[in-house]
Automatic annotation (TrEMBL):
PANTHER family: ARABINOSE-BINDING PROTEIN-RELATED (PTHR43649). Residues 1-20 form the signal peptide. Gene3D superfamilies: Periplasmic binding protein-like II. Keywords: Signal. The lineage of its organism: Bacteria, Bacillati, Bacillota, Bacilli, Bacillales. Residues 24-46 are annotated as: Disordered. This is ABC transporter substrate-binding protein. It comes from Paenibacillus aestuarii.
Length: 439
């Protein structure tokens, strides 16, 4: 598979709001969860206790995935009928604070949906999570995939579930109306946008109100400018964020302004989605998770995707990928043994099949095929032409994180307060506070 982040070196810094805790090993937790039998007469009591129902809670920020997880839980219960699971998501903008507060008080959900990379590692380093290295099935995943939930001590604390990929969604009906094809080069993409604008169709559903949209968009489009090897040069110290290649990727973001909606600085994700599903906008740079949401919002919407086309004639099209999230076990859970059974389930093809078809995202488990043709296309691109989402995979550490600094600076640029060069300077200043290149 192509979804491999070779040579990745990630510095993970625990958030200052998190309190240090003590983490016990998986083996210790498994043994402590079962009282030892002291006599032969105690054995029947143990068997009875083992058959009693146990209820676990799953914390997540994915409110839109509630129906999908109901089906995932139903699949798990086929082989674990005595374990009940409740998927209890929190609004995505409130999840981190809510989870951290609960963990600091010694509570929180039994099973925790980890934000990927530095954010998840921070929880592990603070002692809130149970190590999962010995869980059956963990060898299903590559080391690079497990990197998304690896602590600074090298132990793995989460089971990666699905990949996310960012590409360009487009409205097939609008494209057909104006005789437009999937662009193969950046120049073709701009000509497509020009044609749409001339016909009073908004080329891109886009807004700069929410910072994460900016880093997501920049992360997807930038490889078209600087290729797939430039980030490796930053990681090794042979380049930095003030290098011309990175500055050019920021200028690219600025150059797209004529193709954005009016008043785009006040537009957020809900508005962007609404523009696309109501066919006011023809294209949207977005993560694959929006496919299921948009299809539900408008079942008649004829949409497709294409990779980001290269600027250079000899360049290659790309999609941007990363592990979207992993599931971990709360070190303070009263039912670790049962939670670990769910971790094992997450490594199986049974989970992979239901996840790819219900969440409609590429599976982290090799060899899982999607039934939906568009999800299959997204998965194929993620397997064959992907490049890592650098801001998340490599630069989501720092306080504030370098990713957040990029987002804030891009918002400043769109408010005409910063130039692309100044954006690059701010990003480099942030990286200098924590990132150490490794040759």
């Amino acid at each position: 598979m192509k979804r491999v982040f070779s040579g990745a070196l990630v510095t993970m810094i625990a958030a200052t709001s998190m309190l240090a805790g003590c983490s016990s090993s998986t083996n210790n937790s498994a043994s402590s969860a079962q009282p030892a039998a002291t006599s032969a007469s105690a054995a029947p009591a143990q068997t009875t206790a083992a058959q009693e129902k146990v209820k676990l809670t799953i914390g997540s920020w994915r409110t839109e995935d509630t129906e999908a997880y109901a089906k995932i839980i139903a699949e798990f219960k086929k082989t674990n009928p005595n374990i009940d699971l409740e998927f209890k998501p929190t609004k995505n903008t409130e999840y981190n604070t809510s989870l951290n507060t609960a963990l600091q008080s010694g509570s929180g959900p039994d099973i925790i949906h980890l934000r990927p990379y530095a954010a998840g590692a921070a929880l592990a380093d603070a002692g809130y999570l149970e190590p999962l290295d010995s869980v059956k099935g963990m060898d299903t995943f590559s080391k690079d995939t497990l990197l998304a939930a690896t602590g600074s001590n090298g132990k793995v604390y989460g089971v990666p579930t699905v990949f996310s990929s960012t590409q360009i969604f487009y409205n097939k009906k609008i494209f057909q109306k104006y005789n437009l094809q999937e662009p193969k080069t950046w120049d073709e993409l701009i000509k497509t946008a020009d044609t749409l604008k001339q016909n009073k169709v908004t080329p891109f559903a886009f807004g700069s109100k929410e910072g994460w949209i900016l880093s997501l968009t920049q992360g997807a489009l930038a490889p078209s400018v600087y290729g797939t090897d430039f980030i490796k040069k930053i990681l090794s110290g042979d380049a930095n964020f003030k290098s011309p290649e990175f500055v050019s990727s920021i200028k690219q973001m600025k150059d797209l302004v004529p193709y954005f909606p009016d008043n785009y600085v006040g537009i957020g994700m809900d508005d962007m989605r609404n523009m696309f599903v109501t066919e006011q906008a023809a294209m949207m740079v977005m993560g694959d998770w929006e496919y299921a949401v948009m299809k539900k919002a408008n079942p008649d919407l004829q949409m497709d995707v294409f990779p980001v086309p290269p600027v250079k004639a000899d360049g290659k099209p790309t999609v941007t990928t990363w592990v979207d999230g992993s599931f971990a076990v709360n070190a303070k859970s009263a039912h670790k043994q049962e939670a670990l059974k769910f971790m094992e389930f997450l490594t199986t093809k049974a989970f992979g099949i239901v996840a790819v078809n219900e969440l409609q995202k590429p599976s982290t488990i090799p060899g899982i095929q999607a039934n939906d043709p568009l999800v299959a296309k997204i998965t194929k691109n993620a397997d064959s032409i992907s490049t890592p989402y650098a801001a998340v995979v490599y630069f989501s550490a720092g306080n504030p994180t370098t990713k957040v600094t990029l987002e804030n600076s891009l918002q400043g640029m769109y408010l005409n307060k910063l130039t692309p060069e100044q954006v690059a300077e701010e990003v480099q200043k942030s990286a200098d506070t924590w990132f150490k290149p490794k040759k």
